UniProtKB/TrEMBL annotation:
Protein name: SH3 domain and tetratricopeptide repeat-containing protein 1
Taxonomic lineage of the native organism: Eukaryota, Metazoa, Chordata, Craniata, Vertebrata
TPR repeat start and end residues: 633-666
Cross-referenced InterPro entries: SH3-like_dom_sf, SH3_domain, SH3TC1/SH3TC2, TPR-like_helical_dom_sf, TPR_rpt
Keywords assigned: SH3 domain, TPR repeat
Stored Pfam families: TPR_8
Domain SH3: 145-208
Region of interest (Disordered), ranges: 261-283
Annotated SUPFAM superfamilies: SH3-domain (SSF50044), TPR-like (SSF48452)
Ion transport listed as a keyword: no
Amino acid sequence: MAPERCPPHTPPSRAPEETVCTNGPLCGFLGPCLETLLLDDSLWLSSPEEAAGIEALLDETCLHRLYRGLLMEEGAYSGFSPENIDARNPRAICQVESAAPEQVPDGHPPDGLEPPVPFHQWFLKANAASDGLAGITALPVTDQAATGLSVAVVSHESSVPDEISFQKGDEIEIIGYFVSCMPWFVGRRLSSGRVGFVQSRCVEPEGFLAIATELPCTDFFREDGDSSTKEESLLDDLARLLAPTSQGTICSAYQIDAQNDVGPQKPREEEMPPSFFNEEESPTPCRALRSLMKMKDFQLTEDKKQQLPTCHGPEPPLLQKPRFSLRQDGTLGPEIPDSLLSFLNQGGFVEGLGGLYDPPLSFLKTSIQGDATEEELMDSLARARAVARQADLPWATTRLCYLLGRMSLQKSKLSQARVYLEEALATLRGDFHDLHLVVTLYTHLTGIYLKQKNAEKSASFLDKAASLLMGVASHTDSAEMALEILNYALKRAVLSRSRNAEARACFLLAKHCLTFKQGQEPAPFLERLQQLLNMGQGLPSGGGSVDCYLKLGQLYSQKCLPRLALSCAKVVSSRSSCSLLELFRTLDLVLRNASKVHSPTPGGQTHPSLMAFYLRELLHALEGSRGSQKLRGIIYCGLSQLHSRYKRYEEAIGYMEAALELNPTGEVEEDTINHFIFLSWLYILHRQSDTALCILKAVAESPWSTRQQLGVIHNMAAISLRRRNQLREAAESYFRALGISRETGSVANEAVALANLGLLYLHSAAQSLGEHFLIKAIQLFSELSSRECGGNFVAILLRLGHHYARGAQKEKGRNCYEWAFLVAMECEDVEGQLQAVQHLCHFHSTVVPDPAQCVLYNEYQLTLLRKMSDKVTEGQVLETISQLYLSLGTERACRSALDYLKRSLGIFIDLQAKNKEAQAWLQAGRIYYALRENELVDVYIQVAHNAALSSRDPNLEMEMLEASGDIFFNGDWEKEKAAPFYRDKALPLAVKAKNSSAELRLFNKLVGLFLTLRKYEECLGYAQASLMLSVDLGDQLSERVAYHRLAVIHHHLGQCELAEHFFLKAVSLCPSPLEFDEEALYYVKVYLLLGDITFYDLKDPFDAAGYYNLALAAAMDLGNKKAQLKIYTRLAIIYHNFLVDREMSLFFYQKARVFATELNICRINLSPDQPPGRKFP
């Protein structure tokens, strides 16, 4: 669950590493964590039928081995002996010291010890020094819990007042819960009615149950404000939560026409009338228009109704708590009200006594009136205690002693508190009618004994206090003094392997830690409680499990562990029994944490797409709920917003129309017009401008639109008209919007209107006018703060920069791009920064090439893409940077290119993009070839082939094989390695796939390769095959190349007649007349070579002179003086030595001398011998 670790609440040791192995999987967090880490943001917007998810399966054996390895690395740890697991034998725990690695093979602990689960290991280690836990090391294995009746299996005679006597066979009612791993429970003997402690081993319960089903734990885990499930409260809270997703910005601020297409929008089948505000009825059907008509009918009906007065009934009086006054008399001292003593002397527990036993001791603040200080209050209560004693009021005496003891504890006077509490317990004389009082007395007394290290007293009280806390639900189970006792109870549950008792103890400890927020963290106990609930085995996973997950999510959120918090929300929402209130709490948890792990949303909005999943769940829960239209409308609007940000306009339109249709009466509310305007904008973005115009016209004619909304409507209508290529009407509508913006004093809207006019004129080829309006808009934007202008300023600067960059003012274009980049940085607009950087990258790579600047901006683009989690574009940018470094050609640049390429390769592997992955592997091999690391070249080429094979795409496989051969063919060494790739691997695939063009290309590469390697015999067959395939395909250029290469091969093989024949065939396929200088140069070279072959090899000077004359004509047409010098020289030699024409010989010689003089050549060789180093084209 990277990058988070769970749990984060352990003391500084190896506990986090140990618990991370199991907490996530057992709590169900692993899959949801991986989903938030790996799934693309857009996948959360998928419909429930197409929803994606991750199901994680773990190898339990490997997980346990890893956990044991961590324990042994830690050193000392706790372990259980496997032979002591029998239910009738005590289960002993012992401390294991660190062992040498050779003593612990295969990750198994020494001596066959069984390591406890991670939570037990952490708990035992964290509380190893506790006095209360030190004395217990072994207990019988038992996991029984019961309520109801039990039967005594032995007789017992009590020797202390708090225990009851009974005979074998007596029925004893269980008060609270019977937990077999605890030595005591509270019971009532039915025959006598006496209540007191009963030893657990002395009775046999009639039935057993999972005590977690009866515990009132869920109420505590809920927040104070969550108890109300009224829809009005949910409506207000949900509206507040979704406020950032509202469409207020779009409905109050003008929008930029950001469409970049130049051509007009294609008309739909049903076109709008040419004028926006004409009186004709639009034929376009639209659900939104029906909603608008319903609103008009409702308004007419409301105007006829009279307002009726609203009657409010009298409110019921509030329940008053008992209050008592301690008045001050100067001579007699504080007066003790009789009502206080009477109230405190009640024999059992009544509702008003609850404030006596809660942790903050709220009774003193809510029921005692007066201005006395704390010392004066204690003196008054001490006098009241004395009065109660004298009046023989035992319950009042007990409770006053308890109050004095609690107040002494608050002042850290332990001895004084112990005296008061012991007196209270003695006065009680084993009376259990007020069970809350009994529990709190035992809890605080035991806590004092443990703090004072009174071993004798604590030993006699600890078991009973722990049994009371585990068996009786009361206000004192989260008392501050209960921590050590609850830790003791948890250890007993761990040693007894009692899941029921462990669940109860974990709940109580979590409740204690949440109440006092000091000492231990609550998260480990909640995690373990949830694990026990998820394991089943008698423990339920109902509402308590949901509340436990939600409380865990809140704790993770407070500790900045957003992925774990979101995992809690995902697990809760997946429960089919999840209530509306629980879904609302889940949504609140998501809103607090989703933005911390998800990329910034388009447009700089706050809520990511993850919200859509939970909004749909909430919407599903509201189905069939009466009177939930307004709540569902808010959810529909939120879903529409989320889909529109990710350019899913069709779904966004559906949700917004559903929100408008949820108004059954047609009542016009504050946001209704905004909904219509936002719906119109969605239609514009979805390229349905006619429908948008239809809605905008109806809204503009309605009586509910404000002046500012009318300006927005005119601006949107102009955008729609521009996209319909109604430029004149669009300009008129823009000017109306501009006038309203000036009328309302909105500078930002005025700037947008001017910018849209500028874009309209640029679209109409009025360049100067468009530039003028854009500059005026930029001047207005520059006067506003970054918060006011937002992303519009960035968009206009980029558009003006693009206009300059396409023209002659390229430096101005660069300045506009850089200005836009700075504005986006100031606004913290990630998407705007990305757009500006992409323009700058294009500018420095294409418009005014500057590799250094291009690398710099691409590096920053990488940083932005990581923030936006756009892995696809990130991989492409990494490839681009790699190519930029590779173009520098130095060894250092090649290694930098290799680093970036490997990073892109990792992304392609994650994205399962086999094509890009194979190309990246091959490119890495190409770079290693340039670095002359030949062994790595072969490795990377082989991996590229494997990636291509795994894609099961024969074309990709053939492409990779051919590209592998290209590495060697285009290189400077080991060219022969290209032959197997072309001939043995790629060519058979091309033949099998009947890909004639690829087959021809491979034949040509083989011919070129063997010509370079001078393997003419092997080359001949491929050249002939290339010729035949070129003729079949009708590819004249390839046919001419094939003839030329055949001529060269035959000449190298000494077959001069065939060489002459194929050269002439190649020349015959050249276009006539000549179109390019390259064609004339080809004629020069070929005819010169034909002349040489005929003259020197075939010994035919007459034909040679003819070829030389043809070469001369081409050279003269080309104006190539060196070629003319060479040809004149050859002709002079032929006519002087063989054709014996002195006049022509002298003519050619004189021409040669002229060119030799111009080229500063001193001597002309007229020898008839073949010139050395004759080359063939």
